[in-house]
Each structure stands twice: as structure tokens, then as C-alpha cells.
Design goal:
Pfam families: Prenyltrans. The chain is mainly α. The protein has helices at residues 10-19, 38-50, 67-75; strands at residues 59-60, 65-66.
Length: 77
């Protein structure tokens, strides 16, 4: 996907991720109505962040961590 971000339909991907949410208990699954798990929850939120979804902290794509955490780690050196 490097240099191919324009291939992604951000609106459809956002809708898909949000449809995979468990509205009652929280978490994100790999497909709508499947069981949620930590892996898909984490990377679902990371995907929303990289698509600049409102209310989600910016993520560093190389480290898959929030930008403020990455900046704090590297500014301590």
C-alpha cells in the first residue's frame, strides 16, 4: 500500500470499521457481527486515526502508537 493510499475509499473503510464495532460491550471485530478481539480493536482504531477520524488521536504509522507517545519517547533521549 506504500504510495497507494489513493486506492483506499476512506468513507467505505470508515463505515466498515464502525460497522464492526460492538455497540454494547465495546471493541471491534474482523467482520460485522463477529466476536471482537484486541487485535482488530487496536488496528481498527489505528486505521480510523490514520484516516483522521474525528476524536481519535493521531497515530504514527511506523510504530502503531499515538504520536504524542512516540514524541515523548524520542524526546527523552
Amino acid at each position: 500500500m506504500i504510495d497507494r493510499v489513493h486506492w483506499i475509499d476512506k468513507e467505505k473503510l470508515t463505515k466498515f470499521i464502525l460497522n464492526c464495532q460492538d455497540q454494547e460491550n465495546g471493541g471491534i471485530s474482523d467482520r460485522p457481527d463477529n466476536a471482537v478481539d484486541i487485535y482488530h480493536t487496536y488496528f481498527g482504531v489505528a486505521g480510523l486515526s490514520l484516516m483522521e477520524y474525528p476524536g481519535v488521536k493521531p497515530m504514527d504509522p511506523a510504530y502503531a502508537l499515538p504520536l504524542d507517545v512516540v514524541n515523548r519517547i524520542f524526546l527523552r533521549k
